[in-house]
Amino acid sequence: MWMTRRGFLRGAGLTGLSTLALGSYGFAIEPGYRLSVTPYSLTPPNWPQGLRLRIAVIADVHACEPFMSAERVRAICERTNSLQPDVTVLLGDYNGGHNMASGPVMPDQFGEAVSVLRAPLGVYAILGNHDWWHGPLPNMRGDETKAIRSALKYAGIRLMENDALRLTKDSKDFWLLGLGDQMVWRVRRGVFRGLDDLDRALRAVKDTAPAILLAHEPFIFDRVPERVALTLCGHTHGGQVHLPLLGSPVGEHRFGHRVYGHVVEEDRHMIISSGLGTSIVPVRLGRPPEICIIDLGDSTPSV
Predict the structure, then answer these.
(1) For a Cys-Cys bond, which of 83, 97, 117, 130 suits 93, CB 3.0-4.6 Å?
(2) Which domains does the chain show, CATH number per domain?
(3) Is 257 within 8 Å of 216 (Cβ atoms)?
(4) What is the pTM assigned to this prediction?
């Protein structure tokens, strides 16, 4: 049966409106106004009985105006506090990731915004590739991370780089390890050299208490030993676009199957956050900005 001209035009119009609405949602609503709290609950192998630990994860803030303004970053931090984590970690990429912005969020503004973060066992951070590559926006000159380091210090957040810190919860010890970024310098297309030194971080672990590794990029996971109970990563933005049936085609092309969520390989555990901000283009679809809340040693998470 042939479609009438009027029917064709009506269908084309609806398709156009749907495409426009979807595009507007992806470019404005989801990246700029949505916020998910994504819970995980797991007990890694050899996790000490009776140690229940809640970790809040903030990744890939990519602060810039208008969608990830200093005011919004502060509100996200306050929401994170309301989840009552034992420890909060920031996984790098605080600078804006694209130039499609109405303005930058300067490091001092960012430091003021994240200074509201609170957790009984502390707030810790690592750096990401965008913190090394450029200033508050990609078209702004970088300073080899001096300003963002000062911002984190102002906020009372400890920056970790290839080192480890022993923490105690309920009279039980665990280790928090922070890795230097793996993509500091571009060698050639698709090949980078970093400041990561996993062996050095592991040498700082002095006993058999469980270890949790913070690494901006998930690429290191192949080298992470079973000694590490859990690796926490960002960088991928979960592909930034996740479509029904199709998944995250761009993300999977760039990162393989390690794009998002809880990855288990040979009893080794990694959680990749989709983060908060955007890079390359300011779009999110099916991967809204998220705070991850991870309950270790507790099978009944509540958020």
Answers:
(1) 130
(2) 34-296 (3.60.21.10)
(3) no
(4) 0.90
